[in-house]
Amino acid sequence: MRRPWIVGMSLAGLLLGACGDPASGPEGAPPTTAASGAPESPTSTTRPRPAASPTTPPKAPTVLYLGDSLAMENQKVLGQSLRDRLHARYTSAPYAGTTLCDYLEGTSAKSLVPAADKAAALVRSLRPDFVVLQFWGNSWGYTPCMDGITYDANRDTYFSRYAADAGQLADQIEGAGGARAPKVVWVLQGPDPITPDRVRRVNALYQKRADTSGDLVADAGGTVSPASARYTWTQYLPCTQYEQEHSAYCTQPNRDRTALHRDDDYLHFCLAPTTSTPKPCPVRSPGIVRITREITRVIADHVR
């Protein structure tokens, strides 16, 4: 059965918005497996499954992707990656500027996410096998569900609240799944040049939650970090073998390096300019491909 993509949109400032021009359409990553069959409809979330073989997963997983502006810009590339490699059924419902509490049921009155797109509501309706959560940890008081708690004003209170929200969100997802609760995939974030220790501690919260609950962790942020300095921000990294083999993703081949960020945006990985209306990224962007390939790898390893 085909399901439409769910794409949350909210107005946000430069660092809250995702990039892109909707008229140009998003660029997906190169296929991770050989394409087969007729071209897929752009509104489809599934790809026809080939006959079973030793390399075909026994079951095409259903994946739900939630998050903030980073998820907003990643969503179409992740969907393509999951379909190409796992023939996954995929739905995304990111909202720019959000944080964990926005997806909690019971917060609709002061949340950027409507009731129908709360995590538990979507789990009940879609019955996913995996729920991927990608949140930067927005901490500047933009989202009202944080009740004015910010990292700058009171760091201990911010982390206590963030840990509590992570636990509550995971519990709501599990409860909504009932006897076949989905696996939560916590996406670890990349370096932040402004508050590097904040991202380190947010990632530690995700890792601790996964360790204690049996959930999964995708260190997507590690793929956009220097190999020897996980929490050191950089605009460029050496081209990977994959990027060398797909030349559009090695942006400076003469210097054997590729761009992760634009000059005017240290946070997002889309190489198109940010816009006031958040949208999926419309151009090939190496950082987005690195992140989404790692998320796909983690899910694929667990499906097997």
Automatic annotation (TrEMBL):
Coiled coil: none annotated. Residues 22-54 have a biased composition (Low complexity). Residues 1-23 form the signal peptide. InterPro entries: SGNH_hydro_sf (IPR036514). Keywords: Signal. It comes from the Bacteria. Residues 22-60 are annotated as: Disordered. This is SGNH/GDSL hydrolase family protein. It comes from Streptomyces dengpaensis.
